[in-house]
Amino acid sequence: MTEKFNGNANTAREESMSKEIKTGKSADGGLVIGRRNVLRAGLSLAALPVLGAIAPRRAFAEAVKATTVQGIETGADVAAAEKEGSLVFYTHDSGAAAAAICDAFQKDFPKISARYVSLQNGALFSKILSERQASRYNADVIQFSDLGTAIDFKKKGGYAEYQSPQQKFYAPEHLSDPAGSFFWIGMSFAGIAYCTDRVKKADAPSSWKDILDPKWRGQLSCKQATSGMQFTEWYELRKLYGDDYWTSFGKQKPKGFNSRVQLFDRLAKGDDSVCTMAEWAGYSLAKQKNAPIEFVAPKDGLPSSPMANGIVSNAPHPQAARLFTDWLMSIKGQRLYQENPYLFYGSVRKDVPPMPGGLKLSDFKLLVPTDMKSFLGSRSAFNSQWNEMLGLL
Amino acid sequence: MIARTSARRKGMVSGIAIVAVVGIFVLYPIFFLLQAALKQGDGTVEGSTGYGLGNFERLPSYASIVWNTLEVSVVATIIAIVVGFLIAYILTRTNVPFRRGLEQLMAVPYYVTPLLGAFAWSLLGAPHSGFVNQFWQALGGEGSIVNVTSAMGIAWVMALFEGSVAFVMISAVMQSIDPSLEEASQVIGASRFSTMMRVTLPLVAPGVLGAVVYVFAEMLGSFSAALVLGTPDRFYVLTTAIFLMVTQYPPRIPLAAAMGVVLFAVMFLMTYFYRKMIAGRSYVTVSGKAFRPRPVDVGGLRWVYFGLVGAYIFLAVVLPLLTLAYVSVQQLATALPAWSNFTLEHYRVALSQNAIRFAIRNSLELGVMTATIGVALTGTISWLLHRTNLPGRGALEYISMFPQAVPRLVFAFGIMWAWLVLPVPIYGTIWLLLIAYVTVFLPLGVRTISSVLLQLDKTLDECGQVCGANWSQRLRTINVPLLRPGIMAAWMLLFIGAVRELGASILLVGPNSQVLTPAIVDAWNYSSSELTAAMALIQTVVVGAVIAIFTVLTRRRELKG
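Predict the joint structure of the above. Result:
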């Protein structure tokens, strides 16, 4: 109900907004928030929520008319999107990844200049909430690294409703519930990786239980509690093997890192023998550099966490946001997410080609949290157990 | 007489204006921080359950982390001050060979982002894979000879990269000592060592003390070295704990803010002692009597001194930079080179990213603006503190030291909240970063300029006054020229500080205001260490070039003048 309400209020707001943006545009047709006309743009931005509130709400369900542009089926008004002229993407992904995404989008739509803000998931969440609290709407599209954050954001009325024509290529469980708020833009999944210089293939762990062998004590690495993926692994393996699993794991004195690069660098150099939270993306990047490491996919399955991407309500560039979303959902966007070395995610899109190396996401047995209530509810238990295990209390 | 009163009133008004500006820049975000620290629940709108002291009650369970923080900070401060003092003495007071060149090189560790220093040293000195240890083993040695992941290792790396600021601050002071004081001491038969201890040291005491307070606070607030080197051994300090709390979901900002408030209290005490110690004593070394800063001839000892400074520069500059350069051209960083592993791909990636090109420009612009505005502002503040009877100037000193006390990552939250609610279109633009930088670098500027100001004899200014020069004339022709070394040092420190700033920038960059250091850290988090090394070198070279240009320009002016 809340989402619908937001969605409708939005159309009215969009109109008043595009008017504002016209006046704020610089002569070269470039950025609205360019440094030179920052004052004008800022003033008009500040005026937006007020105008939005004054403008009457029109209660009609918007029928999405799909057109195909650049081989991408979109429900956006492309002309209006190009008129908006820019797009702001908030993402938990790295700057290198975000830059690659924005560049690729801009190549297809040169009239829309795409910019990004990249921040770790928790900090990104704090930032956007603080902005909204102050009625500042800078972001058009936002991507969170785990479903929990996205669901929380949805509860707070953060998303604008948009029924993308690309949705038909996605299973309903890979969209928000109900559809229209966010979608699963890619999957991160983790197995075990080991350093081939230090561990012989025959000795390498092949199942999740193998890493509890005392011979690995002090030689294991994992991530800090900041990692949403580490939380997912904790949740899924606890479901499989019970609470004892992580208690025994704690006795192995694992080393926790915040940086994925540090995790795989250390593994490649043999500082750690086994990485117990080896994300495929990180592994692929290290492997591409000929790091002496090997990936193990335990047969019980790989904990897996979807990243959620959606349009922010009160977005300053609503049509560009739709176009960008459709582009991200298309084969083109999904291939970028699978193939860019700073992304290397798996795609859940039904008709997507295999990942680099020839494997498809469906070749792996994935463990994805389904009971969202229990999943989200156990986050604080995870945080305290994990922080304590790593000596951070 | 009437004109005089009105001039004084004008000065008064501008003084009050400065206090107001500083108050808004500093106290306003701090108000938000205190509010956050007192929040119960998870700190979000819905999760809040009112206010209370719950966050502070939880702090004792972090005692070991507080202890770690103190241990590392104290050791690092001692190393930094001792080394900084010795090198400042050698480079400003003796005829050590290649003085100018060494002086330039001494600035390098400061503008190498601490994260990179830590990163380079972890490549060099990790217990198993460190290059030094690998070479040692390749040469037939057993085990490892260095380990930078210990508490002492972390303190060492922190001292190298955060501590070189001590050198800059102390040498700014040393440059304005009248060498005749030292000569007098030697004439009456004191040895060089006892001259240094009994004449030079007491004269530079305010500068050294200022540096101690500043460096210690910097160490308390630094987190790169502890993050890179400490986490593998579960060695956390307050700032790494705060960093991990703020970046996890759900973010624990109230607890982080409470930790920030604790650091704040410590800093408050430090400033209090600093004021107590310098109060009521005279540190005047620059008086109406003419002198030329003249290095002391130390004979054969100059080569020993050269060796000392050279060794430091080798460890803090040459070795880390060579390591980074070596790593940046490899596909996979290894100790022993192989041709097949060579690549320039990382430079291509680094330079092809539009964001990085923008970021370099933004960083440099911000650096110049921060340094220029910052020097003007902090110069005025120092003036008000030490040369006027402005009511409330004690408070002004405390306020301008506040930003140093709060870890920048936490302070950035305060700044974000503060400027989000103001109806000024600054949020998300480069101007917010400028405000943040000027605010967080207030203490640095005030300390550096104040130290030099304390050495100036007031009578010089009074002479001008007697001769009928007005305030601005006196400033232009008497005070600024005398303060030049301090002002130059401050400008440089602020410029470099702004370009390498990390903690505050992470949160405050907007889509059109990317800056360099967060991009580098981001590469270190997600991309690859080789790319990180390439980006870091690009940053180092760019900043180095700017500093070289700056130095050449100022020297030319010096020669002309």
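Chain B is about 75% helix and 0% strand.
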